[in-house]
Every structure is written in structure tokens, then in C-alpha cells.
Amino acid sequence: MARTRFHDIHAGTQLLIVAELIILTAIYVIGLEADRSYYPDAIPKYWEGQLLLHFALFVLPIQISVLSLGLYNRKMRETFRGIIRRMFVSVALGYFISTAIYGITPAEVLPGNVREWSCLAAFIALVSLRYFAQSLRYQHLGRQRVLILGAGERASIIERRMRRRSDRVSFDLVGFVKMRGDSNKGIESDPIIELNTSLEAYVFEHKVDEIVVAADERRSNLPVDSLFHCKLHGVEVTDILDFIERETGQIAVNLIYPSWVIYSNGFQSTNYLRNAFDWTFNTTLALIVLALTWPFMLLTALCIKLEDGFRSPILYKQERIGLNGKPFNIIKFRSMTTDAEKHGAQMAVKGDARVTRVGAIIRKYRIDELPQLYNVFRGEMGFVGPRPERPYFVRELVLSIPYYNQRHNVKPGLTGWAQLKYPYGSTEEDSLEKLKFDLYYIKHRSFLLDLLILLRTLEIVIFGKGI
């Protein structure tokens, strides 16, 4: 049976979201009844006609904050103490968000300390649920037994890319079946299976749920009749490209062949509704961000001046490649010394000696990106998309990395899928890995995916996961 998920939110996480929604609803109802007991005369005034609004202002900010801080990430490598810390920040953030919304809506704040006590109860209940869910290994819900058809160079990508336990939380790898034509550069540590019987007999005997076709040589080599028989009996048959895309959130550029692109879902070049509202959505969001962050921007400008002198520039412009390969000037707070590129163009690296003390802080929390709101207003960038690169590096990367130019088919963004999924890197290999995530984003591009990326970017900002 095919698995349904919203990008990297799999079945176990979906159940956890529903369970937390039920718990928050129960706390809301209990808080309502407590409020009714202690403030019987105030109930009609505060609750009549506003039950749904108060419910939304309690539940939604907390769950959105939980999502934003990575607590629905199935591959999150965090101790339980770290989960408690993140949950505390999530509930506190949800409380402040609801307080801010109360200030701009006609709804009256609940009497007494109902919201405060409800948030405390929510924190305790959500942490308890996480402990219980982790004890039951909720990440393995819907886990399927997977057999890889192939044990050569193509199949070895699965072993190398999904080596860690956290990479395999949604499936149990039965093994790799050696096929005629497979190269010797294959599997190193996982079991290699030599079939002594038919493929379908092995699949049924070992209760395999999914077969991934990853043979190096497919032409006149695949057991088509056996695959057809397995498919008819409910076994999922998946191409290696689709399997890697589903499990890693990236597209394996080195395995792409034209027919896969042509026949696969996604890569929609035209979405008239999205295009019509793209600038309006991004501009509105930019205005909101500007209204919330202008004090930090002023403070940043002052700190740059204090560190480097009042004659030093606050901002810097740099040419980048945008939509359809059109160059534009990106604007950022200056985070490096004024002579950072006296020896020519260089990619920034982690721990770069050219970064100033103020620059290290604003880069860590992505504050240096805030002036790019100007690029958003001009329509040169959106909030979500591949990060724009400099022309000098684009010319090099286009020659060495296949399909690199395809990332210019969409407008560049302040944040993106690659920024969430891949740590900072400055090598050609890093650029290739980022491209795999960028192509995934381009293929699945949608408003909901953009919203998911924006919410998860908050985790990067709050926990300082910039470079």
C-alpha cells in the first residue's frame, strides 16, 4: 500500500499532530469549565459568540510553534532534555503570538489566569505525550519492509545516502538483490541477497512491502513478470529516483534521465493562480517582517558603525543570478571586512576569518539577510526559493554540475528547502547536494510547501543555525 505524507511529515508524525491537537482541545475545554466555575458572571461577556476564536487562539499558535521549532521533524537528533527545552519555547511563543493577536482583534482576553494555567498544563501534557510517544517509537509507525532490486553502483547510493538509523526510520531494509549487469562498485555493509527462487516467492516469504528498482542495467534484465505479479498482490514497486526523493527530500541529480522528468508529476512551469498572487503575498509578508524587525535593523546598523567606524559602509551590494538567469544586485548588512575580496571572489566558509565580530552574530541569526526585503519589494526575490549565487560561481558550477541551471527556473528566495535540509557548505560537492534539494523544491513547489519552509526557518533563526 502506497504511503501518504506531506513531504517529510510521515504517518507517525501525522498521528502525533492529531494526538497533540486532541490534548490541546481537552485542555481548552477543561480551562473553559474552570473559567465557568470561578467567573460565572463573566462567561456570557467573554465567551458568547467567540468560542471558536478563543479555541483557535489557544491551539493554533502552539501547534504552529511546535512545527516551527522542528519538533515534527522525524529526523531530529535531539536529547529528551533538548525536546523539553524546545517544547517550552514553543508554548511560550504560542502564548505571545496569541497575546499579540488578541491585541489586534475584537476578541476580549479571557478573565483571570485561564490562558496562563492552560499554557502550563499544555506544556506538561505535551512533554508527557512526547515521552510516551518516543517510548513507543512513534517514528516507526507505518514502517515497511523494503527490498532493493540491484546491488551495483546505482543501488549503493541508497546505502551511502541512508546509512544512519535516523535515515531509515520509515523503512526496514531487507537487503540488496544482485542483478546481472550490476557493477562491482556496490554494497559494502548491508546484506546482498542471491535469489535461489523466484523474486515473488522471496518477496512473499519475507513479507516485503516494497521493491525498489535500482539495477545498473535494466534493458532486457528486469524480472518484469515477477514485478507485475508482486504489484498485483499489493507490493509497491518504486523506481530508485522516486524512493530517494521520498525518503530524503532531494532529487538524485546523478541518476536523472529525461524520461523520468517527462513522466513524473511536478515541475509545473505555469501556475497562473500562484503567479498572480506571488508578488502580493511576498510584499505583504515583507511589510509584516519589516514592521517586526526594524528595531533590530537599526541596532545592527549602529553596531556595524561602532565596530568599524562611522565612515564604514553598513550595507553592501553584490551581483547575483536570479529568475531565468537575469542578474540583479542583492543587498545585505555587511558582515565581513571592507577588503574581504581584495584577492578576488571567494565563497564564504564556516569560521571565515574575514567575518567581523558583529558579522558573526548577524550571520548566525540571519539578521544580515533582512535588507533583502528591498529585493522582495522589487520583485527580484521571494521569501522562499533557491538561494541566488554569484555569476562567477554560476559559470563554474553550470559546467561541472548537471542540471544546475534549472534552479534559475524559479525566483530566488531568502530561505529555501536546501537551507533547511543541508548544513552550510562552500565546496562544489556542497553545491551539488544543495541542488538536489533545490530541484525537489522546484518539482513540488506550492503555497503549502512555502508555508512549511517559512515556519521551519524560525527554528534556524531562534537557535542560531546560520553560519
UniProtKB/TrEMBL annotation:
Q: What is its main location?
A: membrane
Keyword tRNA-binding recorded? no
Extract the GO molecular function terms from the UniProt entry. undecaprenyl-phosphate glucose phosphotransferase activity
GO BP term, example: colanic acid biosynthetic process
Q: Where are its TM segments located?
A: 12-31, 51-71, 83-102, 114-133, 279-302
Coiled-coil ranges from the UniProt annotation: none
Localization, per the record, is: Membrane
Keyword match Thylakoid = no
Entry's Gene Ontology cellular component terms = membrane
Q: Return the InterPro entries for the record.
A: Bact_transf, EPS_sugar_tfrase, Sugar_tfrase_EpsB_2
Q: How does it sit in the membrane?
A: Multi-pass membrane protein
Q: Which UniProt keywords apply?
A: Membrane, Transferase, Transmembrane, Transmembrane helix
Q: Which residues form the Bacterial sugar transferase domain?
A: 280-462
Q: Which domain of life is it from?
A: Bacteria
Matches recorded under Pfam families: Bac_transf (PF02397), CoA_binding_3 (PF13727)
Q: Which family does it belong to?
A: Belongs to the bacterial sugar transferase family.
- Which protein is depicted? TIGR03013 family PEP-CTERM/XrtA system glycosyltransferase
Could you tell me which species this protein originates from?
Neiella litorisoli
